[in-house]
Amino acid sequence: MNICTIGDSITWGPRLPFRVAWANLLRNHLEKNFDNLYSLYDLGVDGDTTKNLLQRFDVEMSARKPGLIIFNIGINDSLFRGTEDYPETPLQDFEVNMELLIEKARKFTDKIVVLGLVKGSDLLTTPLIQSTTGKSYTKERTKIYDAKLEEVARKNGLMFVDINELLTDADFDDGLHPNINGHIKIFEKVSSELDKILLIKHERYATLVDQTDNEIGYKKLDAFDENDIVRVSALWITNNKGEVLLAKRPTNKRRDPNRWGPSVAAVLEKGQTYLEAIKQATKNEIGIEGFVTIEGKKLLVTGYNNFYCQLFSSQLDLEIKTLELNKEEVAELK
Predict the structure, then answer these.
(1) Contact at 8 Å (CB) between 202 and 216?
(2) Quick one: which of 97, 112, 146, 243 has the fewest CB in 10 Å?
(3) Which residues form the Nudix hydrolase domain (predicted)?
């Protein structure tokens, strides 16, 4: 499959000591891990707006016949010169241009992704220090155009990758162009979202530890056995009446099938902390996030299954019927 990333300098990646823009990193990732399945073409042009993209889009796509198109455009549409009364692309024109680009893209593929906008400090961008024509960019205007991008993408049923809060001011070289750290963050977000479209499943590894909870290695999640000690996080949720929410594991689970237990439990994967694991599992299994946890004891459990279990608790007044159960992980709640 040919993949085309098309946009402006954020796609192209200027002001970097090596070719480490997010599109470069994505290409390296796909070539390294998936042999010849995917060919990525970076079609970013410094300074491009949606108007420029409309002019070159058909030629670029006809030459490459993409199976997936990623739009990374809009930051230059948001710029102004002098005052905000003179935008490069008025917001209503920006919306029309994006609709036209999506219409053109659908002639080549139904796999279309829209990457959101993000900007750093305004200190060096009002005006942009290297601009000879007085170009100015602000966070406020970037957010307005980013919101319009998301609106258009959602309306057309497309995947929108939100990165507006992903980067900090420290992740930019000049307030406008991400530095290496910024591009790595964008790549990681885009890559994880593309997995859903490309149906890529990554191998997942459990963290193995010794009798004192020191990491000693990793095994695939479906490969560790009774001789291994893994790390587990367990969350017990209570309401203001002191009632405990219990979860029942599905019958097809390899470990403890059809068994009632804590509200949420998770085997720690490679690189995860106990807290990260339980937060992610709670979101994935019952659709709850942003809650406060209290860390309890950490116990070594031995027997048929061996694991270090970090206990967490949280008081939440919930109605079971309002929870979003992931039936692959939770059969029933009570």
Answers:
(1) no
(2) 243
(3) 228-334
Location of structure tokens 């031995």: 302
β-strand partners of 248: 260, 332
User: Residue 133: exposed, middle, or buried by beta-carbon count in 10 A (0-12, 13-18, 19+)?
Assistant: exposed
Confidence of residue 321 (pLDDT cuts 50, 70, 90): confident
Dihedral sign for Cα 306, 307, 311, 312, please. negative
* Encoded amino acid at 170, one letter: A
Token readout for 148 is 């319009």
Cβ atoms of residues 231 and 274 within 8 Å: yes
Element (H, E) at 148: helix 139-155
Q: What is the pLDDT of residues 254-299, one digit of tens each?
A: 788 899 999 999 999 988 999 999 999 999 999 998 888 999 999 9
Q: Under a CB-based contact definition with an 8 Å cutoff, are residues 115 and 70 in contact?
A: yes
What does each C-alpha distance from 242 to 3, 171, 224, 259, 293 come to in angstroms? 53, 45, 36, 22, 16
Residue ranges of the chain assigned to CATH 3.90.79.10: 205-333
Which residues neighbour 164 within 8 Å (Cβ) at sequence distance 6 or greater? 116, 117, 118, 142, 143, 146
Q: Residues of CATH 3.40.50.1110 domain(s) within the chain?
A: 2-198
Tokens representing 40?
């990525």
Under CATH, which architecture does the 2-198 domain have?
3-Layer(aba) Sandwich (3.40)
Q: Residues in the chain, how many? A: 334
Token pair listed for 110: 């139904």
Answer yes or no: is pLDDT of 197 > 90. no
